[in-house]
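Regression check, nicotinamide-adenine-dinucleotide case 494:
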Amino acid sequence: MKTVSHWINGSLSTDKPSQVGEIFNPATGKISGTVNFADLATVNTAVQAATTAFDTWRHSSLTKRTQVLFAFRELVNKNKEKIAELITAEHGKVLSDAQGEVTRGLEVVEFACGIPHLLKGGFSEEVSTGVDVYSIRQPLGPVAIISPFNFPAMVPMWFFPIAIACGNTVIVKPSEKDPSTIMFIANLLKEAGLPDGVFNVVHGDKVAVDALLTHPGIKSISFVGSTSIAKYVYENGTKAGKRVQALGGAKNHMIVLPDADLELAADAAINAGFGSAGERCMAISAIIAVEPIADQLIEKIKVRALKIKTGDGTTNADMGPLVTKVHRDKVASYIDAGEKDGAKVVVDGRNVDMAGEGFWLGPTLFDHVKPEMSIYLEEIFGPVLSVIRVKTYDEALKLVNNHQYGNGTAIFTNDGGAARRFQNEVEVGMVGINVPIPVPMAYFSFGGWKNSLFGDSHAHGTEGVHFFTRGKVVTSRWLDPSHGGINLGFPQNT
Ligand code: NAD
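Current build output:
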């Protein structure tokens, strides 16, 4: 049984915790360790360490910062399999998914390695006679990152490489469900040469989050999690005078137009619907089939869904367990509700036959889902795909735009004009055209609309650089040496 403690000022905290949480292996249902929960005193110690480190780190050269990031990139690459194993052991996703998560996180590290270029300001010479104006961007100070269970490596990596590259110091509060991955990453950052105190980790729940939200030493909050907590974090963080970006839940729609390649659409539905057991904020959970193709499309998805092998993520399974028993039961209760509300269960994940106490649920496919059903209105965050049949593109678009969430969406069609109209008309932050999970590359920014994001800054890309820096504009007038400056050997001074 392992114990996971906080990482403060470059080493493990030895504070005796007043509260601990249990860590499970979702594939066995067994407890694999405990995690110490931070109280106010522990958070204060972490903020003090980050504040002290900031005094030096903010003056570190861009060359030094990028040397650390390049070294970190090499170390993550070298340890990709080890990090994936840590993710699978506590999250449950299959190893290939876990490795994919590390790869997507690494792309942000690579983006942050370009910080000397990204931090370059603007310069206007001679805005008035002898007057120049230039802009610079400076770090905020200690910043907090509060992350969800579903991407224990990638989501923190959306933020901390850029925050550190910009000269900030960081405190991560990871999910208490899978806290080990970020500890391994903390060690790699130290090995890469990051000075102590620049990167810290505190574990815990609401107590730790509230302490970070109200601590005057914390200058910004980057939150990712469910919508109700994102809203809470946004409201309370901004009330405390902080800059906040709070990414929330999702209900991603995939529209399939009658002219689409149905084989491609069915493959996409399977990968985006059941990958990571649907525990992805960019998972597809609602498929809008524009008639007359619904029967054909559902048959193709059904055939594929029945072939998905559910099992321990460390074996050659296609789909792992859900993260906790509570979450597994919640997702199963949505399936019960959908059936009761009159949707047709085409593939039933409740029937999955697994030995042991793991948190298992197979893929579920619903047909004839109606917009007023809870399986359509709410985020399920599990391996459940709902098909809604409509007659026209306009009906499909209206469904997407009327939904409370606006994280990601996709359209499948061979008509460029239809796709172009969709990208223009849809009220969603990230759009895929014949691409099911349109997670933007690191040099673009990641974020949704409506109840999927509170605040106006998306994650990574240039918006990330802006979020983690403050702009300053300098207007300067330096008189010509002929006005009595030092003797430069000009004729006027001699
Ligand atoms: P969650 O909201 O339960 O937890 C997120 C973080 O908030 C964790 O660190 C947790 O410890 C903390 N927290 C939990 N309850 C709290 C409370 N009452 N007060 C203060 N802090 C609290 O989310 P989760 O279950 O870990 O993750 C799944 C959710 O995250 C889904 O809704 C998913 O859509 C969302 N998500 C969104 C994105 C995105 O980019 N929009 C990405 C990944 C996950």
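Comparison notes: The radius of gyration is 25 Å. The pocket of nicotinamide-adenine-dinucleotide is lined by residues 146-151, 155, 173, 175-176, 205-206, 209, 224-226, 229, 247-250, 281, 379, 381, 407, 448, 452 (CB under 6 Å). No diff flagged against the previous build.
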